[in-house]
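Input record (one chain):
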Amino acid sequence: MKTLNVALIGYKFMGKAHSSALLDYPFFFKHGVQPVRKVIVGRHEAPLRQAAADFGWEEVATDWRTVVNRPDIDVVDIATPPSTHADIAVAAAQAGKHVFCEKPFTATLAEAERALDAVTRAGVKHMLGFNYRRVPAIGLARRLIESGRLGQIYHWRAVYLQDWIMDPQFPGSGS
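The corresponding structure, as predicted from the sequence alone:
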């Protein structure tokens, strides 16, 4: 089985979700690839060490720039605030690493174009995670619309409500 050494940049809520997904990957997909949770990266060492222990990472690091240039890293998984995604994706691509990025991809269109250009030029695989694409309610709405059961749709508005991010101290909730 082929192994891919992963560096996860970010260790808070999405870092936990990505860690779980990497652990579960071989169970769901039989592609002969085993992701190795090699190094998890964050700014604060004490909670980072706890996250590494809790999520099963081999190492910790506090400098993502050094990690993306490590020769033993194959994939850079970006789970940081969106304002940091472009710089990390560009650096990872320039280092020849495959890039997986949590949504939203970047904060601006210009950043997205810069990051896409970098991964395209480098010829690395790249992907953006959309974890709500297969929500049953969305599938039902699509089937109802496509069947014509709801008539002609002229306008719709949807709201995704969740209370866990209402805390103004939660990182990223104010942006």
